[in-house]
Batch of 4 targets.
Target 1
Amino acid sequence: MDCKECKKLIPAFITDSLNYKRLVSYLDHVDKCMDCKEELTIQILISEGMLRLEEGNAFDLQDEITKKMQAAKKKIKIHKILINVRVTLELFALVAIGVLIVFFLL
């Protein structure tokens, strides 16, 4: 992912609407690119911070960024777990079918 694409995806990241593949690519880029991380920080400050300050609520920018990044990484981890469960179940089903075929053929 390049910086131009990454910066276009910031609003989708903030609203948690990136699909798995884009989210993985996005986080990988932001972890390595200080310019894009800075742009993310600015946009979070504008979108989240201004709203909270207008409501009179406290806002900790660094904490907000950390929470969003942790939530995104958790989403990726859960997705990977679900993929592993699915693959395991598919393999189990194939073995069960194989056993049934052998059982009925003998």
Target 2
Amino acid sequence: MSHQPKAEFLRVVAERGFLQDCTDLEGLDKALLQGSVTAYIGYDCTGPSPHVGHLFNIMLLRWFQKTGNRPIVLMGGGTTKIGDPSGKDETRQLLTEAKIAENMASFRRVFSGYLDFSGGGGAVMANNADWLDGLGYIPFLREYGRHFTINRMLTFESVKGRLDREQPLTFLEFNYMLLQAYDFLELHRRHGCRLQMGGSDQWGNIINGIELSRRVDGAEVFGLTTPLITTADGKKMGKTEQGAVWLNPDMLSAYDFWQFWRNTQDADVGPFLRVFTELPLDEVAKLEALGGAEINEAKKILAREATSLAHGDKAAAAAEATAHETFEAGGAGADLPTIALDATDFSEGGVSVVQLFVRAGLASSGKEAKRLIREGGARIDDAPVSDQALMLGRERFEGPVKLSAGKKRHALARLAE
């Protein structure tokens, strides 16, 4: 990074690991130093709730507001009807308007926990259906389509990658980048929005919006992208063996959310503390320097801080207390049967969850364990198991893992001393 930013927002996000690319870092820095800037990130409501994969950019918006700026959360009520082709090999399933509205309500609830929408200077929640649904096709093409060339559009990764992999790209999806570019133009007109932020896979779409705003309105606007975050073993953030880690409290309990963070791999503790909590960086440095069993204390702090933001302080404290009672104190965990695993139990892919249930005495045979999983009665750390072929790697056993068959039969699995 040749330019060293002076604005508080840019310094914070650079130090904490949010910053990947910026269209004009020096220009954006100057704009932020002159006063409050308005920025947006768009979210298509294709799922029933935001999940941990969205949390990276939600925290970016939170820091944007905490440093004196105004964030816009753009709900894709219009663009969800098409689906963003970025990073996808298949066309998204088209949702009904009723389902989109239901998903959008869930998204709103989650964002209200991370951002302050009160007052005249508070965050804004907008819906691009407000302007996209009323567009006339021919007038839109005449007014804005002439600013896009097919030659240029074919060079963007969201299109080029799909075609290189010989996967079909519908004309419906091909239009998506025009609509996203138009969103930026509309938000600049309606709210004075000067910055679009998003994951690095959105770079091409963001560039389109900047160029359209400049050509049509002569606006000076900016783009900023974040790295696509993965775990230390290269997996996409937000997915686990048990499914998505939802941010809506109705879809995932505070305890399960706490356990997700507690099971973080050692190498991810530092990076995750930087982006998913608001702990001071000097404290983060001390925590990530811990070694051996002490790193587990850092994981508990990560779990506590992340769960407090998503579920509230009381729910986070209760989740931590439950985990302590189950796994460490002389509560239910002390009386649970325990199996100890050593190196011979792990193949290249890990240890089979089916064999874990058999060894723990929760199933009499592999066949019974598979039936238990199929019927929804098997749980790991209180999260349901749906995959009979699931393998757990050694990193999952940094602490004891709770196995449950139904509501009353439990066991622990841990690495041998």
Target 3
Amino acid sequence: MYNPETTIPPRDPVSMLHIDSTTIFSERGRLAHGTTRVARGLATAFATHPTPGVAFCRFQRLSQKFLPVDPAEILRMMTELQQTEVRRSPPGRIKQSRVSALYRQVERLVRSKVRDPLLRCFGSMIEPLASSRPFLKKGSILLIPDGINRHDFQALMDLRHRHGVRLVFLHFDLLATLPKGDPRLTDPTTIDLPGTDFVAREADLVLAISQFSAGILLESLASRDLRCPPIEVIPLAGQLEAQGMEPVAGLEPGCFVLTVGDIVARKNHALLIDVWEHLLREGDSPPKLVMAGSVHTEGVDLVKRISESPELEGSVHILPSASDAQLAWLYAKCRFTVFPSLKEGFGLPVAESLSAGKPCIASNATSIPEASQGAAIHLDPHDTNSWVDQIRRLAFDQDALENECRLIKEKYRPVSWRDTQAACMDFINDHLAPKA
């Protein structure tokens, strides 16, 4: 088992391990979010600390094949990805209509039933023209380090069943699943499955990012009498990978509170707006609230609420396109951070805040307390009064703030992507290395 108290260099794998970088390539030049940030962090660790028997690959839809990737190219992309992405304005109300929802359903249907089958057909037609030597050999291992729903299920099934490649998936959180008794759950050939159910059926090993996410997965599979692959929990890094720092104009160091995460309902930004409104009504002058995250459709009304309030408009600053370098500066220069999310597979912004030595007031829901190692202030994400009290305390009591900083040094052990890499390697070897 992986020991989080020590940093262990990865062991050499017995079988060839391939790190999938498909999403990294498709998302190059864009801001990292959630699972993409994890994929980039792990890829950087593997590319920076090469291990015998480990290589990179990516899936090319045109040829329907996995292709080798040079580790140097991975590192080049990591540098490119620090560029700030210019995003469109938040979507308007038309994007929230039933017509918009229907359009998205049709787009997914066309992609899964028309585009992907045509690409697979085209790939099979040109396959005889390509090298007959398979890149991913029988017995090798493919690690998928990001969200499974980004991948071609048929291609992964072919790798496992036709070519003998073993599949390892990182598991983040429980997404949509089929109900017990659905015939697709017992059909070994269908690709018409939600991502979680596909992983359960096809994984040779699952690496969960928290005890909570592993437990929820186990409960879901047991309740539906489904196969349970081996599941291990890896320590997820909380150190932000950034090339230096870039100051954010209009923000004074030490005079703002930071929350990181896309503006969607489950992130619970509405609670923070309620808190700031309360403080302003009571005559307080709270630090500016900086919300670093993209504005999704369901966050438009919240943004509108802020823009229509003269008090809030001057007290809340939205950064929808913060680069990693800007995020590094925000973490380093904020007074403290807040993270009231209702549901997480881990809670990366909590770990990033503590790794930067900054106190965090966070939700006590789902996996979030695991991310803090007990070094954050955890509150009920529905208890606005508690959030008002704690935010007021750290905003105006310097001694309280400094005490929380000391507690971080005492309680929190930063986890690096090198640590996460080592844990992945150990578990892969433990479960998939040939037995003597």
Target 4
Amino acid sequence: MNHSRVEALQAALSSSEADAWLFADFRKRDPIAWSLLGLKDVAPSRRWYYLVPKQGPAVKLVSRVEPTVLDQLPGETRFYGPWPEHQAAFAALFAGYKKVAVQWAENLPTLCVIDAATLDRLRGLGVVPVSSANLVAQFQGRLSEPEMESHRAAGVVVQRIKDEAFARVASELHAGRKITEQLVQQFIVDRFTAEGLLAVGHPPIVAVGAHAANPHYSPEHGPVTEIIAGQPLLIDLWARFDKPDAVVYDITWCGWVGDRATVDARYVELFNLTMKARDAALSCVKENLSAGKTVRGCDVDAACRSVLESAGLGQYFVHRTGHSITQMTHGDGVNMDGFETTDTRPILPRTCFSIEPGLYGVPGNNVGGTTYGMRTEINVLVDEAGQPGVFGAVQQRLLLADVVSGQVKLV
């Protein structure tokens, strides 16, 4: 890490209420610190601290057992040994500081990584811990132009594989061959591999019938489930190119398997409402950012959720509206969330996030009493000028995996 990185951290601090930013870690408990500071090729077994003030040089505090562990970082190095010296050296770090940013946020679990003992010691010194959430978003959630282009490039391939997956279902059933959720999932994974893509975290979701009522259903954890006519089908697939700094592309599309005569009108009605909620969230982002206004993650969630609540379906929308997207499917940037948490961070230029309303466990019209689940997901990419856009196709009508023709049509 060079001095320019410290200068970037200090530039971010200049508009913060915090006087300094504390990075404190033990056994890599704080992945954000390691990422922001660019620490590599070290495996410390003792606590270390790195304090970046608004102005002036950074200060390192490390154990005498591991005196060189932060040598790759600029700044003065201080040491501790026995516990009394440790406590005194820790206290000396904060002389003259009233508020210090730390990796902590009441409503953002990905930011809650600083240990309680360190927080207690700060408070015991009269220092007020301030959440680093807004600071982290400026670094962890923002993308370079090559990173944004990697997202777009992945989108071209992911969209094509999504089309191929639905087409595979239609053609196999038309030919009278058995096809299962697991086979479609493996088909997508194989296509990702062939195209140089990597599904980050776990394989894609392929959910037929009532399985789609589980937002995080995954075929590999359950019995082999055959896809048959007369059921809805949800496919959620995400991937990035298998190379450093590539950014994920993440979408969900829904369809009906069978022919037009088997389509449940209630399912179509519900899915249309879900798309309406998605579009309301996107309009909230576009209208506010285009007007130069601040829009927070919780504001987008409210715009989306209100559509489904007004239709009496709020109880079936059981997750946040969207999540930050970076090299990770769920990044550390702003989430579109006023439900699971309240993300009051503003949407920033050069960031990416999903909008993905869903309904889960809604009763259908079918005789068997199956409950339905559905989701529609798009990715919003905000450019350098702060203008949002969606790269790739956006689902506007339910797909039909038509077993009569063996083709994919629109309902």
